[in-house]
Design goal:
- The protein is an alpha+beta fold.
- The chain has five domains: 73 residues, Alpha-Beta Plaits (2-Layer Sandwich); 261 residues, no CATH class; 81 residues, Calcium-transporting ATPase, cytoplasmic transduction domain A (Distorted Sandwich), CATH 2.70.150.10; 134 residues, Rossmann fold, CATH 3.40.50; 117 residues, Calcium-transporting ATPase, cytoplasmic domain N.
- The strands form five sheets. It has a seven-stranded mixed sheet, sandwiched between helices. It has a six-stranded antiparallel sheet with strand order 6-5-7-13-8-11, with no helix packed on it.
- Helix 26 runs antiparallel to helix 28.
């Protein structure tokens, strides 16, 4: 059976959250679709389907039959260009509607008694309702054909009824007057309502565009053209789409790097802040990794392309952010259920209001009944409900991406604020994960000693040998001397002969077994180094020790402050490591961690997380290796360090691109702020409708004679959506 495909399609034609709910229902009903979610805020559908039972074309047709458009590969367009054109078209309609509505309002409010006032208002309002506002009537008709109703239905019904009633009163004015009733017209209400709603949608469209600014920034990081070095040494300007793996690429000072690769020649400092959120440029030299979208500094680099196009880290980040922004938080499920029944309920409330006014108000019941029904239809706003959660999530996840925090889904955003315990791996999480020489103590000054040690260590692939090799290479060209009888003694170290003399580089056991004299002063120095969580390499010949080398996996500079911040937030911090107790204790002491477990096997890490959960704790696990993946999978919130294994990153719900532990408190604060914004948005959206709809129906009229003007209702409806999106956008300005 074919494997399920997960993909995201742009959707056009949505006017409100009820539209999104309708499309989601249609897609989930399609054969072969396992799950489909539609995001009204960014106009996308995330679909998981089986290609043997369905196809993009079948999905497109199902959505098209429901009155909307799903843009698949077959009908691919430049979505950003289309959105820009739609925005400009909406702006033209809004400006036209406002220009024609203004004189209608002025006449309707101040000059009702001038000759032909009703006719002038009719002439000016008709194009506003049926030309500039035609999208509402077209959308309502489409949904009527499919026995459905959306926000377009409410707008079309309210403005259409107000306009028809006004035309009727204008034509049959004498008939109403003969019965002692003044024939009111509501041309200004129908025109201004359209103008206000168009203005609201224009502002909403502009604001929604700002919520996806993080994606646009990331996409803008990719250069259009690169300089490829041909096999004959000539340079060729090549479109970035044509770059292949193994191409040699030249990047000049100030240029953006086009593909992930490995530096072959040159040195420079590269600004990687757009990926990691770290402002300090990173030094790049031979064998350093470079990433697409980062900016080269003052030097020139030649690098070999390793990953191109959609395989680069930048492309993966863009996909991850897009998927996350399109995902739904658990709280959204309640909102979706409400949105699905919202419009039919509002139409029912309007009908009941109309009937009650007719029955209870004998003097001007019909006029008041019509006003109440129209106002109820106008003021109700499913858009505010539909935008409350996704806009906040889009901004929150985008803000995270700008800070080098990749959040995989909305659910993890909602979980993070409840975390009260965090489990940290040591190597690669609290520490750099790369052994480095911390002390090179020369005991006997022998000519060529460093060259001999270098020649021995470079022939080993052990991490400690690699650390010594890098230390000796740093800033100088090392001579490689010929060696004979080279031997890698397991668990001990290295042995070789140079110029007829035998040399040893290994641990103390190797020295003792080889009969090398070890002075007490050096044994004391080794003890101090070991107590500080360092590994020690002895370098010696038969005459005695030549050098004592201390190697450590250094703490990340930000680890202690990150631990302090987490504890200040009320989060208990635990450290788990497979390392020995002495090293674990030294690292924990340096970081200020009191809960430590050493000699822990991979399966014991997941068991430890489960034991904390059994105590009622909400646990976050932070790791970077394959051995952490099981614990990451069972944790309430899983966080991977971006320098770690692909498996850990795939399992984790959040990824810290720069592997800077101080980003974790930032991620939790960002999550708290996002969840707080979602709650604020939902509160105001619900309160707006709970208060607005009864007031529009006329519940205050028996108390103080207040009946809401339909024009005010139109303005309030437009404002409700804009206020929700604006509140979400405030997240962008906050510092975390």
């Amino acid at each position: 059976m074919a494997k399920n495909i997960k993909t995201t399609y742009p959707v056009t034609g949505m006017g409100c959250a009820a539209c999104a709910a309708r499309i989601e229902k249609v897609l989930n009903a399609c054969p072969g679709v396992e799950n489909a979610t539609v995001n009204f805020a960014n106009s996308t559908a995330n679909v998981i389907f089986n290609p043997s039972a369905s196809s993009p074309e079948a999905l497109r047709k199902a959505v098209s039959d429901a009155g909307y458009d799903l843009i698949t590969e077959e009908g691919k367009v430049d979505l950003e260009e289309q959105q820009r054109e739609n925005y400009l078209r909406l702006r033209r309609r809004t400006v036209g509607a406002i220009l024609l509505s203004l004189p209608v309002v002025i006449i309707g409010m101040f000059f009702m008694d001038i000759p032909y006032a009703d006719l002038i208002m009719f002439i000016l309002s008709t194009p506003v309702v049926f030309w500039f506002g035609r999208q509402f009537f077209i959308g309502a008709w489409k949904q009527l054909r499919h026995r459905s109703a959306t926000m377009d239905t409410l707008v079309a019904l309210s403005t259409g009824i107000a306009w028809l009633f006004s035309v009727s009163n204008m034509i049959f004015a004498s008939w109403w007057e003969s019965r002692g009733i003044h024939p009111h017209v509501y041309f200004e209400a129908s025109a201004v309502i359209i103008a206000f709603i168009l203005l609201g949608r224009l502002m909403e469209s502009k604001a929604k565009g700002n919520t996806t600014s993080a994606i646009r920034k990331l996409m803008g990081l990719r250069p259009k053209v690169v300089t490829v070095i041909l096999p004959d040494g000539n340079l060729r300007e090549t479109p970035v789409e044509q770059v292949s793996v193994a191409d040699m690429i030249l990047v000049r000072p100030g240029e953006r790097i086009a593909a992930d690769g490995i530096v072959a020649e040159g040195s420079s400092f590269v600004d990687e802040s757009m990926l990691s959120g770290e402002p300090i440029p990173v030094e790049k030299k031979k064998d350093s990794k470079v990433f697409a979208g980062t900016i080269n500094g003052n030097g020139s680099l030649t690098y070999k392309a390793v990953r191109t196009g959609d395989d680069t880290l930048l492309s993966k980040i863009i996909r991850m952010v897009q998927d996350a922004q399109g995902s739904k938080a658990p709280v959204q499920q309640l909102v979706d259920r409400i949105a699905a029944i919202f419009v039919p309920v509002i139409i029912s409330v309007a009908a009941v209001s109309f009937l009650l006014w007719l029955l209870l108000d004998h003097s001007s019941g019909f006029s008041h009944a019509l006003l109440a029904a129209v106002t109820v239809l106008i003021i109700a706003c499913p858009c505010a409900l539909g935008l409350a959660t996704p806009t906040a999530i889009m901004v929150g996840i985008g803000k995270g991406a700008e800070n080098g925090i990749l959040i995989k889904d909305a659910e993890s955003l909602e979980k993070a604020p409840g975390i009260n315990a965090i489990v940290l791996d040591k190597t690669g999480t609290l520490t750099v994960g790369r052994p480095m020489v911390t002390d090179f103590k020369i005991v006997r000054d022998i000519e060529s000693a460093e060259s001999i040690l270098y020649s021995m260590e470079r022939r080993s692939d052990h991490p400690l040998a690699r650390a010594v090799t890098l230390f000796l290479e740093n800033g100088k060209d090392m001579d490689v001397v010929p060696l004979s009888d080279f031997e890698n003694v397991a668990g001990r170290g290295l042995r070789a002969v140079s110029a007829g003399k035998e040399y040893f580089a290994g641990n103390r056991r190797m020295m003792q077994e080889s009969g090398i004299p070890l002075p007490d002063s050096l044994l004391s120095a080794e003890k101090e180094m070991t107590a500080a969580a360092n590994s020690v390499i002895w370098f010696a010949d038969k005459d005695g020790v030549i050098a004592l080398i201390s190697i450590a996996d250094p703490l990340r500079p930000t680890s202690p402050s990150a631990i302090r911040q987490l504890e200040e937030m009320g989060i208990e911090v635990y450290m788990l490591t497979g390392d020995n107790p002495a090293t674990a204790a030294a690292v924990a002491r340096a970081c200020g961690i009191s809960h430590v477990q050493a000699d822990v096997l991979p399966q014991q890490k997941s068991e430890f997380v489960e034991s904390l959960q059994a105590e009622g704790k909400r646990v976050a696990m932070v790791g970077d290796g394959i051995n952490d993946s099981a614990a990451l999978a069972v944790a309430d919130l899983s966080i991977a360090m971006g320098t770690g294994s692909d498996i850990a990153i795939d399992v984790a719900q959040m990824t810290i691109v720069s592997a800077d532990l101080s980003k974790i408190p930032v991620a939790i604060r960002l999550s708290k702020a996002t969840v707080r914004t979602i709650r604020q948005n939902l509160f105001w959206a619900f309160i707006y409708n709970i208060i607005g709809v009864p007031v529009a129906a006329g519940v205050l009229y028996p108390l103080n004679g207040f009946l809401l003007n339909p024009m005010i209702a139109g303005a309030a409806m437009a404002f409700s959506s804009v206020s929700v999106v604006t509140n979400s956008l405030l997240l962008r300005r906050k510092k975390f």
